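Pasting two entries for a bug report.
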Amino acid sequence: MLLIFNPDTDYALASGSPFFTPPARVIELRRSMALFPLTYALPGDYLLLLDAENIDFYSDNAGFSLNEVTAKGVTPVTLSDVADSLRSMPRPFILPWGWNPSLCRLLVEAGVDASLLPDSNQLSDLRRLSHRRLTISFNKAMQYCIPTLDFELPSEITSEEDAVRYWYSHSGCYFKSPWSSSGRGIMATADLEERHIRPWVRGMIRRQGSIMAEPGVKRSLDFASEWVCKSGHAHFVGLSVFVTSSRGKYKYNLTESQPRLHALISQACPTFGSSIIEAQRHTLNQLVAPSYTGPLGIDMLTSTDGQLRPCVELNLRLTMGMATLPSFRALL
């Protein structure tokens, strides 16, 4: 299996262009965390270092040694030799952090067989499903499955004035860009004034066509269910719990056993249980799995009064929570 860490994938999907160039800070993140796939790598895997002209250059300039890669039985490769590496595999398979047109272009230009990559229709479906508007239909379906889930659905807004009206009527609401990751592209408005909100909303609508709006909630725990979609069906992998900043930006995941994580979630949200997972499975099978193959995570939260939000965000890619569950690879 060829592993690729490309945390710019959500930005590339937002762009929609095969010629997308990530911002410098995102390239630096990609470079500094290039070895992160070792978390879920197995002996015999290959690791593509996207920002390396050659292995020695990368090792000398990235602030770490590649010894830990080879010690785990993983072979580091660059774009110049990735095609040959794939041809040497008995069953070539590529597992990036996430697919997007820009990554596909890079791999094709490097000589990778296009049959190993998602085609244009699959990429179009991925971009459509990665838009945060999917949380509207997903939560609506969850409420249909479990009528006791009673909360206001997210809204998609396409004008600056409508966004301001929403803000006035929903104290402490959140505005979100349609495509973003790890809490970036989220505006927590609780301590903001209208003069702060208008430029952000105006710019985001201009760039991505709309924004998502959600009522504010006093969160007590952020967690997720991790899945793999294959052959039209969603397969549950496990649970993850993560920590965010007061403004909703991702900080880190807890590294605990599944029973311990389930206990933490149940303590914060007594209504969480197998019925939620089954409703998510049913909804994924209806809305996502027919058009998407690969890993995904459903971010959830519970409020300080124990109320569950069963789908704050869907990430159609690998997630930090999934990386703590290397058993997911058996489902790919």
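Entry 2 (this is the one that rendered wrong in the viewer):
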Amino acid sequence: MRFRTVCLSAIFALTALLAQAQGVSQQYLDYIERYKEMAVDQMVRYKIPASITLAQGLLESGAGTSTLARKANNHFGIKCGKAWKGPYVLQDDDARNERFRKYRSVEESYEDHSRFLQQARYSSLFKLSMKDYKGWAKGLKRCGYATNPRYASLLIDLIERYDLDQFDKYKSSKLHYDYSGIDRQLDSESLPSHLVYKNNENYYVIARSGDTFDLLAEETGVSARDIRKFNELPKGYRIQAGDVLYLERKRKKAAKKYKDVPHVVQAGESMYTIAQRYGIRLESLYEMNGLPDDYAVQVNDVLRVR
């Protein structure tokens, strides 16, 4: 028994020495082993490279040893912001006693990190390949995730030093985690930023009860005037829950997959709702179909959308 203990101790010591010789930390390797499946799971669900998630977790939490990670399960240094209504901890950062989000679990931190990146300010990242970890790292810095001027290079170094991009090749995760409890907790506590969706090479959000153009402008960085203009809405319009609101000017035609695939009008639809569905300009929809701009569609009308 003593011989086995000595052997195991020797193996652990040798592993630590090899890690040190290779310029890597055993503590970092342990973190990667512990959370790699969680990062892959988030990649599958949100299309964020697992290498980026792991590198940010390593860097922001000091491989899980930072005060924020230990006291608040906050592995990504996410501050409260105006929308957060949940628990928080105080910590000095760019200023004294800044408020950082506090989570019930590390899983909740990983999930909130993925949701956090759904904000419009990070939408340009999702135009990149998930294998382009350098582009993602530089994009995070450019979009203002961190103030450290070396943030991108620090992430890239971690990814390359620990071969984290190997996880970007995974198609699925072995983790079968039930996120329903986290969904309820984050929805009730944090009032998270609107998820940003993509349609016809454009980004949009789905309005919630109580939304206004000014509130959406503050959150997305797109002016209230432009949101109205991009969605062809009059100045006095009041946002309704469920409204589809594009954050860039809509295209003249629907996506290529709708070539020779007309739209058959259903009950309750209008020319406007159809234009919003396909992410095209209302005037273009009228023009494509040779219709006057006061035409009211009828059920079973067949409309070109591309």
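Dev reply: Rendering is fixed now. As a check, the viewer should reflect this: Strands lie at 88-91, 98-101, 197-199, 202-206, 244-246, 263-264, 302-303.
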